[in-house]
Amino acid sequence: MENTNKKIKIKILKDGPYVVSGNIPLVEKVITPKGKEYEFTDGALLPQTEQYELCRCGKSKNPPFCDHCHEESGFDGTETATREKYEDRAELIEGPGLNLMDDHRCALARFCHRKEGNAWSLTRNSDNPKFREEAIIAATECPAGRLVVFDKAGKAIEPEYEPSICVIQDPERGVSGGIFVRGNIPIESSDGHIYEIRNRVVLCRCGKSDNKPFCDASHMPAKFLDK
User: Fold this and answer.
1) Of 69, 88, 97, 168, which is least surrounded by CB within 10 A?
2) Which contacts qualify for 36-45: CB closer than 8 Å, 24 or more apart?
3) Are strands 113-114 and 117-118 parallel, antiparallel or unpaired?
4) Rounded CA separation 149/93 (Å)
């Protein structure tokens, strides 16, 4: 679903924060085990303003907001992510009932794992109606947008998200996760480039990603915790 509100945007400042404009709702979501699967549950209430700055260096004492610690720490926020389109960089996995694309951009949120199998095995067995349904859930619940599932007519199956930003917490792993950006919010690089607009992406907020501005799960080995 395309945004018509032209004020909605995330602007990345050079070696600085994410500047979010357009009155985009900001929430905290917690990765929560549910049997052998996972779900997002609601976390802390966060202040709501028309424009706000989110920390990108991982040093803020007022997370998730920027307090300009990046200036003192000498944070290098150089953006290194490819600017290729998703369809040009993603691997295609074909199944009998669905196709799956995977660009390997992982935030280790684990929603791709279901009780019946993972997104890849479920896709390969998608002639089974139950596995087909589970494959769709496994792919569409991936916050990073790594996985996109298509029907055999080539139509992407995507959840309908209103523009919003979710700060992720992952208490099972003892870390704080990235920033889940959903609902086709434009992300503008520090040099003015607009990254491919997508329904689901996760941005780095620990400052350690080798794929800035996107999360590459570096918050795990870094044991990043914002609390």
Assistant:
1) 88
2) 36/113, 36/114, 36/115, 37/111, 37/113, 37/114, 37/115, 38/109, 38/110, 38/111, 38/113, 40/166, 43/167, 43/169
3) antiparallel
4) 9
The CA distance from 103 to 114, in Å, is 20
Contact assessment for residue 79 and residue 12, using Cβ atoms and an 8 Å cutoff:
yes
Between the CA of residue 163 and those of 55, 116, 127, 145, what are the distances in Å? Answer: 19, 31, 33, 15
Structure confidence at residue 227 (pLDDT):
82
CA distance 52 to 209: 22
Alpha-helix runs per DSSP H in 63-175: 69-73, 86-89, 119-124, 129-140
User: How far apart are the C-alpha atoms of 129 and 123, rounded to whole Å?
Assistant: 11
Q: What is the pLDDT of residues 88-118, one digit of tens each?
A: 999 999 999 999 999 999 999 999 999 999 9
Q: How far apart are CA 117 and CA 139, in angstroms?
A: 12
